[in-house]
Design goal:
With about 450 residues, this protein is an alpha+beta fold. It folds into four domains: about 90 residues, no CATH class; about 80 residues, no CATH class; about 110 residues, no CATH class; about 100 residues. Helices cover about 35% and strands about 15% of the residues. The protein is built from 15 helices and 13 strands. Strands 1, 3, 4, 5, 6 and 9 form a six-stranded mixed β-sheet that branches. The protein has a three-stranded antiparallel β-sheet with strand order 2-8-7, with no helix packed on it. α8 runs parallel beside α10 and α11 packs antiparallel against α12. It is elongated, with a radius of gyration of 33 Å. About 15% of the residues have low confidence.
Length: about 450
């Protein structure tokens, strides 16, 4: 029942981990971790054998209980597909206060660094044996920490309902973590329970080794459930009550003529929420995008994308790898992009005319169609179609202007655009004086 020892320092660099092949950790250490024993191949050990957990957006995440720098930790493992071995790094360490109840050695386990053998002390001590408290003064420390972090007039009204803090303080002390009394009270920085947006984890305790216990508010929006293959569901952040900000894209139902607009709208939505995990994490970004796709045409495609996402993660690709989003986006374009979009935009571009809507509208629409047709504004052909679309009178005024020289005509779109606007403005001013003279 020992942790897998890693030699040397654990940094941000990948460090190889040899997974244990037997289920030998006690239940209070395993928590929700489960052991999968895969059959051997040709007498060799199966490298997939070991402990796993199920994350909200990642099933069968490989984990291992390791010892590094003299400390025991649970860590997430990732598979090196090139050299075929499991590895970890310091960012992959799992906090001891976690949602999967991945635990640590209990105080009555000899593996615990603060383990006290009461029977041995009783045998070697002189005089009557007195019960020894596992954590001397623990009750006093809980009381002191609770008074500091809960009984405060700072922050929200003391009568405002808030989520309990004391259980996490008790848990910290049970793990041997000291409760600091020289920081702002946790209750002073927590929002009332009735407010929507959940706050970020708030540090309330730090051990001598630098380990931090944070208070994580449990209130907030319920996650959206995304249907996945095999009857599984993957929760993602809700787009309300403090979740995602801004205007979400209109639900996409498979219309190829709207696929480009959907990607643009989702791109804006993504940038607005770039610090939200629903967008910053590539795997979760995929599930978030899938929540904005609906209809009978989209359901089979969504299920296929979830199957691919799960396969990549199960195969060892970290959920933070951008390959998840890149493959999803390319699959979307391959399936729903209007193949004739460029040609249709170019056909509309060469037919566009400067009409009664005004010069500004004509120029804006010309640029939009040029972008959709993927042609360069400064190309000779593009400038030619721009001149063809202008009103004949305006085109004659441009040529007659002092700025135009036939021997050295303008070669950029901006030059033609600026001179078209200048001549058009002169015409507008001339029309104003003409009306004034007509009214005399």
């Amino acid at each position: 029942m020992v942790a897998i020892v890693l030699l040397g320092d654990l940094t941000n660099e990948h460090k190889k981990v040899n997974r244990r092949q037997v289920n030998n950790l006690p239940s209070h250490v395993k928590g929700q971790a489960y052991f999968k024993d895969y059959s051997r191949t040709g007498g060799s050990l199966n490298k997939s054998t070991g402990y796993y957990i199920n994350r909200p957006n990642q099933k069968h995440c490989a984990v291992e209980f390791i010892k590094v720098d003299g400390e025991d930790y649970w860590t997430a493992l990732h598979w090196n597909t090139v050299e075929e071995f499991w590895y970890t790094a310091r960012p992959a360490l799992i906090p001891r206060n976690n949602k999967w109840n991945l635990g640590w050695w209990s105080l009555n386990d000899p593996q615990h660094p603060d383990y006290i053998d009461t029977e041995q002390i009783a045998e070697t001590s002189e005089g009557p044996h007195l019960p020894i408290e596992a954590h001397p003064g623990a009750h006093k420390e809980i009381l002191a920490g609770g008074l500091h972090h809960i009984a405060t007039l700072q922050g929200a009204s003391p009568l405002s309902p808030q989520e309990p803090i004391l259980p996490q303080i008790e848990e910290a002390i049970a793990q041997g973590i000291s409760i600091p009394l020289d920081i702002a009270p946790a209750a002073a920085v927590l929002p009332p329970l009735t407010q929507g947006p959940p706050t970020a984890p708030i540090p309330v305790a730090t051990s001598a080794q630098g380990n931090t216990l944070s208070y994580v508010p449990m209130s907030g929006p319920q996650p959206i459930q995304v249907a996945a293959s095999g009857g599984q569901t993957i929760p993602v952040a809700a787009a309300s009550n403090g979740g995602l900000k801004g205007t979400p894209p209109q639900p996409f139902e498979g219309d190829r003529n709207k696929s480009h607009a959907f990607l643009v709208a989702f791109g804006i939505f993504r940038f607005t929420n770039q610090k939200n995990e629903a967008m910053s994490n590539p795997a979760t970004r995929v599930t978030t995008a899938l929540t904005y796709m609906q209809g009978n045409m989209m359901e089979p495609w969504k299920e296929k994308q979830m199957t691919k996402l799960e396969a990549r993660i199960t195969g060892g690709v970290m959920d933070t790898e951008e390959i998840h989003w890149m493959e999803f986006e390319q699959a979307f374009k391959d399936s729903f992009t209007n193949a004739n979009r460029k040609q249709e935009a170019f056909n509309s571009l060469i037919k566009l005319k400067h009409g009664p809507d005004g010069l500004d509208i004509f120029i804006a629409e010309f640029k939009r169609l040029a972008t959709a047709a993927e042609v360069q504004l400064d190309d000779h052909g593009t400038i030619y179609h721009f001149k063809q679309g202008l009103k004949p009178g305006l085109m004659q005024a441009i040529i007659a202007s002092n700025a135009y020289t036939p021997q050295n005509p303008w070669t950029t779109f901006k030059e033609w655009e600026d001179n078209a606007r200048s001549c058009h403005l002169k015409w507008i001013h001339g029309q104003e004086f003409k009306r004034q003279n007509d009214n005399r």
